[in-house]
Design goal:
It is built from 11 helices and 17 strands. The chain is an alpha+beta fold and 372 residues long.
C-alpha cells in the first residue's frame, strides 16, 4: 500500500489501495458471468410521482450524464456500458456511497472486539470531541444519521456547512478539527437528518479503535476478500485522514462486489465477512424517525439504516447513494445489483427528473424486473 504525502498543503494527497489485480497478485476469478445485454433503448417506464411521465431508459441514462451502468442479476451481467470517458478499468469517485463501506468496516470492527457497543458514546473513543456537539451522543445515533448535529448539506449553497468543509479540505485543513467545531441543533436519537460529518466520526472511531487507517482496514477486510479486480484509491486530507464520507475511487465492477456481498447477507462464497446481525440492522429501518414517511425525517419517502438507504415497498430493497447520482442498488427479491456512476451537471436543478433519486429508483426497479 502506497501513501503519498501532499507536496503542499493545497494539494489533496492520495492514499492508494493496492488491490488484487494485474500489478499485485494474479487476478481472482470474476464472480459475474456475462450474457447478451438487454436492449435499454427499448425499455420505457413511468414515474407516477412526477405527473406520470414516461421515460425512455436510454434517453434517461444520457440526460442524467451517466458514465457507467452495470446491471447484475443472479450473478450474471445483463448490461454493462460506459460513456463520457469512463471505461471498465477507470476509477470513479464514490461520493457518499463510501458511507456504506464505512458501515461495513464498523460492523467488522465490532465483531473483532475493537468496538464494544453502539450504545457507547462517541467521546468514549474520541475524547477530542468532548465539548463539541458529539459529546454524549450514542454511536447508534451517528450510524443512523440521527446525531442531532446542526449541519447544512446544501451543495449548491457556497455558504453551507458542507461547502465550508470542502473549502477547508482543499486548503489543507484537518477534517477531524472541523468536526470538533460542530454543535447540536436538537437532541440526538429523535430526528433523521443527513449529516455527512456523522460518517467522518465513524471513520475516526474505526481508526482509533483498530489502530489502522481506513485504507489498510478496507483492503484487509473487504477489498482483498472480495477479489477486487482493479486498483482503487481513497482521497485523504493534508493530515493523512481519509475522506470517510465520500472519497473512495473504484471501478464499476468493484463497486458491484459490495452489492453482491450485501445481497448475500454479508456472505462471500461461503465466508461470512459482514456479521449477519450487523447486516440485518444496517439494511432495515427500525425506529419511527427512520421510516420513509416519518415526519421526524428530513428525507421523506426513503428510510435509513446504518449508513444505508432503505426503500419503501415490499421487496426489501436498499442502496448506497452519492451526490451527482451515484448508486449501488440491491433488490434481494429479484437477486439484482445495479451500479450507476454519473456526473450530472444538472444535479442542482430543483424538480429535474433526470437528477431525482426517486426517478432513478423507478428505473432500477424496472430493470430489476426485466426478466419476468
Amino acid at each position: 500500500m502506497n501513501f503519498k504525502k501532499p507536496h503542499t498543503p493545497f494539494i489533496i494527497s492520495l492514499l492508494f489501495i493496492l488491490l488484487v489485480g494485474l500489478r499485485c497478485t494474479p487476478k481472482q476469478e470474476e464472480p459475474f458471468a456475462p450474457r447478451d445485454p438487454m436492449p435499454l433503448d427499448e425499455i420505457e417506464y413511468s414515474f407516477i410521482h412526477m405527473d406520470d411521465i414516461t421515460y425512455n431508459t436510454f434517453h434517461f441514462i444520457d440526460s442524467s450524464d451517466t458514465q457507467g451502468l452495470l446491471v447484475i442479476q443472479n450473478d450474471t451481467i445483463h448490461y454493462e456500458n460506459y460513456w463520457k470517458g469512463q471505461n471498465e478499468d477507470i476509477q470513479h469517485i464514490s461520493w457518499s456511497m463510501a458511507k456504506s463501506y464505512i458501515s461495513a468496516l464498523f460492523g467488522i470492527a465490532m465483531e473483532e472486539g475493537h468496538i464494544k457497543s453502539i450504545d457507547q458514546t462517541v467521546d468514549e473513543y474520541l475524547p477530542e470531541l468532548k465539548g463539541s456537539g458529539y459529546e454524549g451522543v450514542k454511536i447508534k445515533d451517528v450510524l443512523q444519521m440521527s446525531s442531532g448535529i446542526g449541519f447544512d448539506e446544501t451543495y449548491s449553497d457556497p455558504q453551507s456547512d458542507i461547502q465550508q468543509y470542502w473549502q477547508g479540505f482543499v486548503f489543507g485543513e484537518s477534517q477531524d478539527e472541523f468536526t470538533s467545531t460542530l454543535s447540536n441543533e436538537r437532541p440526538a436519537g429523535a430526528f433523521n437528518k443527513y449529516v455527512s460529518m456523522d460518517t467522518h466520526v465513524l471513520g475516526m472511531i474505526i481508526v482509533k479503535a483498530t489502530g489502522k487507517n481506513l485504507t489498510e482496514y478496507l483492503q484487509e477486510k473487504l477489498w482483498k476478500p472480495l477479489g477486487s479486480e482493479f486498483d482503487a484509491y481513497w482521497i485523504v486530507d493534508a493530515k493523512g485522514m481519509e475522506m470517510a464520507l465520500g472519497g473512495i475511487n473504484a471501478t464499476l465492477r468493484d463497486y458491484a462486489k459490495i452489492g453482491r456481498l450485501y445481497l448475500n447477507k454479508g456472505n462471500w462464497n461461503g465466508k461470512q465477512i459482514i456479521p449477519t446481525t450487523w447486516f440485518e440492522a444496517s439494511t432495515s429501518s427500525t425506529e419511527e424517525h427512520l421510516q420513509p414517511e416519518s415526519e421526524n425525517s428530513s428525507d421523506r419517502g426513503i428510510g435509513y439504516g446504518y449508513q444505508w438507504w432503505i426503500l419503501d415497498g415490499n421487496e426489501g430493497e436498499y442502496m448506497a447513494m452519492g451526490v451527482f447520482n451515484q448508486y449501488i442498488y440491491i433488490n434481494p427479491t429479484t437477486n439484482t445489483v445495479i451500479v450507476k456512476n454519473s456526473a450530472n451537471k444538472n444535479y442542482y436543478e430543483k424538480d429535474n427528473p433526470y437528477a431525482s433519486t426517486m426517478t432513478h429508483i423507478e428505473l432500477f426497479r424496472k430493470l430489476a424486473h426485466m426478466n419476468e
